Amino acid sequence: MRYKCRVCKYIYDPEMGEPRSNIEPGTDFEQLPDDWVCPKCGSGKIRFEHMAH
């Protein structure tokens, strides 16, 4: 499931992971550390919303 930052519209795609944050491909959004922030704008996980298919 992909999640979108409501602040800057960055999309976290678990299939891609997030190399800038050392997040491996295949890591679900729920598995990200609680202190993980958007690599684009620095917003916390609470600012992300689930994207419908």
Short recap of the structure:
This protein has 53 residues and is mostly beta strands. It contains no helices and 3 strands. The mean pLDDT is 96.
Note the main attributes of this structure:
mainly beta, single chain, 53 residues, globular, 3 strands, 0% helix
Structure write-up:
The protein has strands spanning 3-5, 11-12, 48-50. It is mainly beta. Strands 2-1-3 form a 3-stranded antiparallel sheet, with no helix packed on it. Strand 1 (3-5) and strand 2 form a beta hairpin. The protein is globular, with a radius of gyration of 10 Å. 9% of the residues are buried.
Helical segment count: 0
Helix content: under 10%
Proportion of β residues? Answer: 15-25%
Biggest β-sheet: count, sense, barrel? 3 strands, antiparallel
Order of helices and strands: EEE
| Helix/strand/pairing category | mainly beta
Q: Tell me the strand order in the biggest sheet.
A: 2-1-3
The Rg value, from CA coordinates, equals 10 Å
**pLDDT averaged residue by residue:** 96
Poorly predicted runs: none
Ends apart, CA distance between termini? 8 Å
What shape does the CA trace take? globular
**Secondary structure: number of strands:** 3
